[in-house]
Structure formats: structure tokens, C-alpha cells
Design brief:
This protein is an alpha/beta fold. Strands 3-2-1-4-5-6-7-8 form an 8-stranded mixed β-sheet, with helices on both faces. Helix 8 packs across helix 13, helix 9 runs antiparallel to helix 10 and helix 10 crosses helix 13. It is globular.
Length: 300
């Protein structure tokens, strides 16, 4: 299958590479040409503008956006709305708000263009492991996109969650849960660090131990083992923990739905607090975000 990929950042580049490895054709465009040229050397097709990207695609044009949520996505969609013929399909694979998806889908439908929202989880490890993908859109559009999804995801790693907006809604809740899990690990290790036993504990070994059949084993603990392996007390990091927006949206949704979500809410507020101190647990949270997503960290 041939697809246009717009945006070759941390996620878009490796997703394109995985598709190429899976036998698909990828026509790519990025605002900085060096990324596009790099993918071209690896077998991708280079386009130097959105117009050229659209022209290089077959009759049923499928364009996947992997861009920062918000204004950048809106700008590209406005341009694509003018360039794409009826019958085309746009996939928004970033972290957009689900209500924006619903609005955009309706706007594109007026032009006869399909819209799919794909919440993608996998971070910098997705190239090798695969990308867990949560998809919203019309069943026919999902079916048309399925060969791409099957290649991007690990086995049983993608799901049609419902109509437009459902994919990013499920991904939003996924990220809210992630906040709570990370905070629980951070607080647990902070208790170890504050104890009389801390000088005897190697946290990389503790992380490894807890992944051997315990009820709290997880991929996050594997990443913690890596982080502690290179920095045993995370002393090289500053405990400043950013948030990408989806945790806030999850808390807002809890308020709107009248659903009690104290763990996720507290985890979000703890990130706000982190920006004024350098606590150990916040260094741990920063280390985890860097390990699974390649997110920037602040050095101490």
C-alpha cells in the first residue's frame, strides 16, 4: 500500500521506517528537508511540498499526519482540504483532542474526504516493538487503512474503537492512566530512598526483581531498570516533569463526566509541583518519560 506521511519527528520517522520494512511505499514530506532526504536514502519517496506529496500518491490518496497537536495540524489540514480530491483519506496520528477530530471529520466530509483519528503509543521503541494504535472513524475507512495498521502494530496491537474521535479519546485515557502508574512508581521508590535501607539498595536490581512475576511488573519497570542502570540515583537529572496535555484533558473529562479520578488528578498536579523543586520522585518521572518517549530532560 502507498501512503503519504507528513511529519518526520520522533514518531513519524520511525513509523515510516517500519512501513518501509513491511513492504509499503511511503511518500514523505517534512518542513525541514534533511529528514525527508534521510528517509529517501532508506527507500522512501521524497516530496518537497504538500502539493507534490499529493500528486505522487495513487488515485485513492491516503495521507497520515504525524505533527504536533493544535495549530500545526489545523494549518496542514486546511491546505490538504484544498489539495485532496473526494475519496481521499486523512489520518491524524498525533495527540489531538477528540472533539477537534469530530469537528475536522465533519469539515472534511463536506469535501468527500474521509478522516480517521489514530492514537499511537509506542514512543521511540515503536520501530522495533510496534505501535499500539487506537483508531476512530467510519468502518469502511478503518478497513481501507488496516494494511497500514497491521504493519505498524504488534500482533493484536490495533483496535477500531468507534466513530471519529473514539481513537484519540481512548488514547487520552491511556495517557491519564500512564500518569497514575508513573506517579505510583515514583512515590514507591521515593519511600525506598528515604528509608534506613536505601544505602543497601540498588534500584536497578529492585526494578529487575519486581519484574520477575510480581503483581506490579510492567514495561515501565523495565525502563526504570535501564534508567537506574546508567544513573543509579538519577542525580544527573533535574526533577522537572512536563505534561503533554492529555493528562489535563483526562482530568477535565473526569469533571465533565462526573467520574472520580483522584489518582490521575493527583499525578497531574504533582507534575505541576515538580517545576518548583528537584525531588527524587520527579527525577524518576523525568527519567521514565525520556526512556519510553525520548522526551527532553533537564540536566541538574
Amino acid at each position: 500500500m502507498k501512503i503519504g506521511m507528513v511529519g518526520l519527528g520522533r514518531m513519524g520517522m520511525n513509523m515510516s521506517r517500519r512501513l518501509l520494512r513491511g513492504g509499503h511505499q511511503v511518500t514523505a514530506w517534512n518542513r525541514t528537508a534533511d529528514k525527508t532526504e534521510e528517509l529517501g536514502r532508506e527507500g522512501g519517496e521524497v516530496s518537497r511540498s504538500l502539493t507534490e506529496l499529493v500528486d505522487l500518491l495513487p488515485e485513492r490518496k491516503v495521507v497520515w499526519l504525524m505533527l504536533p497537536a493544535g495549530v500545526v495540524v489545523e494549518e496542514h489540514l486546511a491546505r490538504l482540504k484544498e489539495l485532496l480530491p473526494a475519496g481521499s483519506l486523512v489520518v491524524e496520528g498525533g495527540n489531538s483532542h477528540f472533539r477537534d477530530d469530530i469537528r475536522r471529520g465533519a469539515e472534511l466530509a463536506e469535501r468527500g474526504i474521509g478522516y480517521v483519528d489514530a492514537g499511537v503509543s509506542g514512543g521511540i521503541w515503536g520501530l522495533e516493538v510496534g505501535y499500539c494504535t487506537m483508531v476512530g472513524g467510519a468502518p469502511a475507512d478503518f478497513a481501507a487503512l488496516e494494511p497500514i495498521l497491521k504493519t505498524l502494530a504488534p500482533p493484536e496491537g490495533y483496535l477500531h474503537c468507534g466513530p471519529i474521535g473514539a481513537g484519540h479519546f481512548v488514547k487520552m485515557i491511556h495517557n491519564g492512566i500512564e500518569y497514575g502508574m508513573m506517579q505510583a512508581y515514583a512515590e514507591g521508590f521515593a519511600l525506598l530512598e528515604a528509608s534506613d535501607f536505601s544505602e543497601h539498595l540498588e534500584y536497578a536490581r529492585v526494578s529487575h526483581l519486581w519484574n520477575q512475576g510480581s503483581v506490579i511488573r510492567s514495561w515501565l519497570l523495565e525502563l526504570l531498570e535501564r534508567a537506574f542502570g546508567s544513573d543509579p540515583r538519577l542525580s544527573k537529572l533535574k526533577g522537572y516533569v512536563d505534561d503533554s496535555g492529555e493528562g489535563r484533558w483526562t482530568v477535565q473529562q473526569a469533571v465533565e463526566s462526573g467520574v472520580s479520578a483522584p489518582v490521575i488528578t493527583a499525578a497531574l498536579f504533582r507534575r505541576f509541583e515538580s517545576r518548583a523543586d528537584n525531588a527524587f520522585e520527579n527525577r524518576l518521572l523525568a527519567a521514565l518519560r525520556h526512556q519510553f518517549g525520548g522526551h527532553a530532560v533537564k540536566k541538574s
